[in-house]
Design goal:
alpha/beta, binds magnesium ion, binds adenosine-5'-triphosphate
């Protein structure tokens, strides 16, 4: 009778796994957890979520041979259509996010593209390795969720898992109150090396009135701004891009076009981004992926600042 999905509270699962994980990873790795205050219930087969978290934690541990920081977060979030646009496998509604972040080696684009494939490993053939993440991927997809990695070589990794929350009357009533969108008519430049993300953001901001230009890199963005064929009020840039980083781009924009507001974005969780000094205090930041209202309200807030 145990081989059926059961309702598990992720906050409780991570809490009780922590001691075991602590013993499974080397002493020179600091392990911290940031768990959502409210309960986060999902429906999974017994033991599966533990297996997924364990596999992500071991990967992070492997990526930090000289020690570092490992963070596990759980958070309840409401996914909307904007989000589902980027994560084609997810349905809008209440979800739980689990994020495992490390300060390790990170991954290049080529490794990221195949990391969820069976037998993908960069750890050599001496070990029987490779199925870890493809198994985790299978489990998450079977549970109606999605898994996504954000990483850049040399900049650590954040892997985020989204799982549908077990439906409760309370979450339904929460859904019934739509959050109003921030609107505007300003011109916004969106800089992201992923064309899919840049276009999704463009579409959403276009829906609430903004005019949106896109650029695939820092140098492209600067070139576009130098042409000055119309004012740009806000530059929204990904933090970690191959070549020029978002931080570097932000600095140059501040120097050359001091009137333009800058909003940074990244798949790394905001706590992680600040903790590692990627951004200073008082800097505007929004974590990927965003829901419709989070994105439109943040953009309005930064433009008004
Ligand atoms: N947190 C991470 N940091 C850097 N690289 C990672 C991370 N997670 C996964 N990878 C990369 O993805 C590859 C695939 O991971 P996966 O867990 O499937 O296999 P593995 O860890 O090599 O072997 P195992 O089956 O023992 O887990 C890894 O070999 C590594 O290159
Ligand atoms: Mg692994």
């Amino acid at each position: 009778m145990t081989n059926r999905p059961v309702v598990v509270n992720l906050k409780a699962v991570v809490g009780s796994l922590k001691e075991m994980l602590r013993r499974a990873i080397p002493q020179n790795i600091a392990l911290t957890t940031q768990l959502d205050d409210s309960s986060s219930e999902v429906s999974m087969y017994p033991g599966q979520i533990e297996q997924v978290i364990m596999s992500l934690v071991l990967n992070s541990s492997d990526a930090m041979p000289n020690g570092g920081q490992l963070t596990i977060e759980t958070r309840n979030i409401e996914l909307d259509e904007t989000f589902a646009e980027i994560h084609k496998t997810l349905q809008p509604g209440p979800h739980v996010m689990i994020a495992v972040s490390d300060t390790g080696t990170g991954m290049d684009k080529a490794t990221q593209q195949k990391m969820f494939e069976p037998f993908c490993t960069t750890k050599g053939s001496a070990r029987e390795t490779g199925p870890g993440l493809s198994t985790a991927y299978g489990i998450v997809r079977q549970s109606g969720g999605d898994i996504q990695a954000y990483s850049e070589a040399g900049h650590g990794t954040t892997v985020k898992i989204y799982l549908p929350q077990v439906e409760r009357a309370a979450s339904r009533s929460r859904l019934a109150t739509p959050v109003p969108a921030g609107r505007g008519t300003e011109r916004i430049l969106v800089v992201d090396d992923s064309a899919a993300i840049a276009n999704a953001v463009k579409r959403v901001l276009g829906l609430v009135g903004y005019t949106v230009l896109t650029a695939a890199s820092g140098p492209d963005a600067l070139q576009l701004l130098a042409r000055r064929d119309g004012p740009v009020h806000l530059a929204m840039t990904d933090l970690l891009m191959p070549g020029m980083s978002g931080v570097e781009l932000g600095k140059q924009v501040a120097q050359v076009h001091p009137g333009i507001k800058v909003l940074y974005t990244s798949g790394y969780t905001s706590g992680y981004v600040r903790q590692h000094g990627l951004l200073g205090q008082g800097v505007h930041f929004i974590e990927k992926p965003y829901s419709f209202s989070t994105l439109t309200n943040k953009v309005r807030e930064v433009l008004n600042s």
